[in-house]
Amino acid sequence: MNRREALSSVAVLLGGTIIGGQLFSLAGCKSTPEMVNNLFNSDDVGLMDEIAETIIPETNTPGAKAAKTGAFMALMVKDCYKPEHQQIFTAGLKTINDLAQKQYQSSFMDLDAEKRKTMLTALDVEQKEYSEVEANKETPHYFRMLKELTLLGFFTSEVGGTQVLKYVEVPGRYDACIPYKKGDPVYL
Amino acid sequence: MSNQIYDAIVIGSGISGGWAAKELTEKGLKTLLLERGENIEHVKDYKNATKAPWELPHRGGRTQEMINNYPVLKRDYALSEKNLNYWVNEKESPYVETKRFDWFRGYHVGGRSLMWGRQSYRWSNMDFEANAKDGIAVDWPVRYDEIAPWYSHVEKFAGISGSKEGITHLPDGEFLPPMDLNCVEKDVAARIKSEYKDQRQMIIGRVAHVTGPLPGRSNCQYRNKCDLGCPFGGYFSTQSSTLPAAVATGNLTLRPYSIVTKILYDKDSQKATGVEVLDAQTNQTIEYKAKVIFLCASTLNSAWVLMNSATDVWAGGLGSSSGELGHNLMDHHFRTGASGDAEGYEDKYYFGRRPNGIYIPRFRNMNGEKRDYIRGFGYQGGASRQGWNREIAELSIGVDLKEALSEPGKWTIGMTGFGEILPYHENKAVLDKNVKDKWGLPVLALDAEIKENEINMRRDMMEDAKEMLERAGIKNVKGRDSGYGFGQGIHEMGTARMGRDPKTSVLNKHNQVWDAKNVYVTDGSFMTSGNCVNPSLTYMAFTARAVDHAVSELKKMNL
Hints:
The structure holds two protein chains of two kinds.
Chain A: H1 3-13, H2 22-25, H3 42-55, H4 69-80, H5 83-104, H6 113-131, H7 142-155, H8 158-164, E1 175-179
Chain B: E1 3-5, E2 8-11, H1 15-26, E3 31-34, H2 64-69, E4 96-97, H3 125-128, H4 130-134, H5 144-158, E5 160-161, E6 175-176, H6 183-195, E7 203-204, H7 238-248, E8 252-255, E9 258-266, E10 271-279, E11 285-289, E12 292-295, H8 299-307, E13 332-333, E14 336-342, E15 348-351, E16 358-360, E17 377-385, H9 399-405, E18 411-420, E19 428-436, E20 442-447, H10 452-471, E21 475-481, E22 512-513, E23 516-521, H11 536-555
Parallel strand pairs in B: 1-11, 2-3, 2-12, 3-8, 4-20, 5-6, 12-23
Antiparallel strand pairs in B: 7-16, 9-10, 10-11, 13-18, 14-18, 14-21, 16-17, 17-18, 19-20, 22-23
Helix pairs in contact in B: 1-7, 1-11, 5-11
């Protein structure tokens, strides 16, 4: 039984069906979401986890949520972003929920995986066009931030770095020229 | 105040100071090694050296707090949470930038030997004769034949990996086995060799890593985490190499937190008698006496110590009688070159993280050729396959992106030139008594810039890189010049140059201060010109030679 199947069984035991990531965030069970730092609360982390999971989904290997990418984003934005970039980022999270409301009359968390992907794919097109404009360099698009943090958070995590990529702490030697077979993972 | 007496005092524990301490103690001198900063003990204090990327909270990145606290270090790659404690606290130790000057300092035992780039090249006679031939600055008082045995001496102990190539102007050394070029580098090297009819070479970098048997050391493990400190001692540092050798003699006393404020000078004997030390923790002043002093505090700080010493005799400080102390400040300018894609190697890869790259030795202004500048540059670079951290324009999000980034990307190859900066008298460091550091000591004001010769050279550094890559069959070749801030090469040199005449130089050919013969200055400050190769191996060789001279002079009662 893999992790997803395990969760499905739990859902059955609870007498419900899984709707999106609701079960993971347990949003409905909480009165006030806990602040994880001065910028984000636990609901935000849940939302960032689901956005990250949409960008890097679970396949036969774990996805971004399993690597706790939401919590990583909360830390990075708080510690490493300039205040004006923090502002773009937090406003962006709100925009994503507003867009979900507008397009699907639902919060992002309540959307199924396919609708999430459709929505974020459109945002990725938007950020690519936006990022090509030199004048926008100082004010990056919020979805570019989300995507970059997802990739960084996932691929340099233990889950991403060892179960999706390969990481060897002490290679011990350098083999300068070896065969590569399509499908073999890249070294972190 | 206590008076303590040693045979020798070494000021500074970096690459040069470590070597001075090793050579002096091995020759039987009771030696005091003074280091202004904290101790970093080999292996034990390399806090992040064995951490995986995910064990660093920001995965090695830089926080806003770090950016605010390190306004100089943030200008280049060096600012990272991985080894922040190896870089100087900029608030405690300010300096004045009369012109922009990127001064990247390490104030701790081992100095920058812990974080250095480890590339190690000999100079040749072309380099030692250059000033005389061009009629600039002053002539080097040393030629290759005199220093070659000392290069051998230090290479054998430090452990330099490299390939023997028979290149006259980049002499071979006492090498441990070379690291290998990867598939793309090997083919590009062969193409460059044939395209340029043996006038240009691409070789594996010569690097201070252990790649074969070397007593007391372990082989490089290809982790490429060198600047965190190596728990295997795989590369040369004070901690891995010279310090344990000095300690083993029983003749060494290491004293961290010891800021040397001045060299004490006796007018009658015209010699130094010792040093005054300010304890960085207690603020106590202590005097230490010795027969001979090795000043190895790094180019700019050695100039500072001299400028702050014997000012009652010479207003400009000890060694200032020529008017050259603090002048002729040099570095290597770089950050311009080219890169492109290597096609047709999709079925090739490599294993291990080689902490080294390719080197293309200087080829300009040689063999009768004359450009619109003098001297030249070499290239460092390498080929690799892109990792997860790459842009894939045609992919958006989801499974396709995940799968694509989980595999290696295309092969790319890039190179950046490292160019010579001429020794301009007006490029200088001076004392600024209006600005004080944490300990109330005056600081340095740095005033240096590159000029027409370097600016003209930079054009070739980019264009030649583009041309070579294109002629080697590389696709999508793009040149780039990321700009250069003086000091960014972290190869400061020349504030106490050696020469043949006390009227125009600070040191004689043995690294002795003309004005105080028992003071030897053997870090980058002695450099009469800068050449274009990484300088540390040359400091090692001159330091060992200077110690040999000092000990023989002591025996002859000349000091």
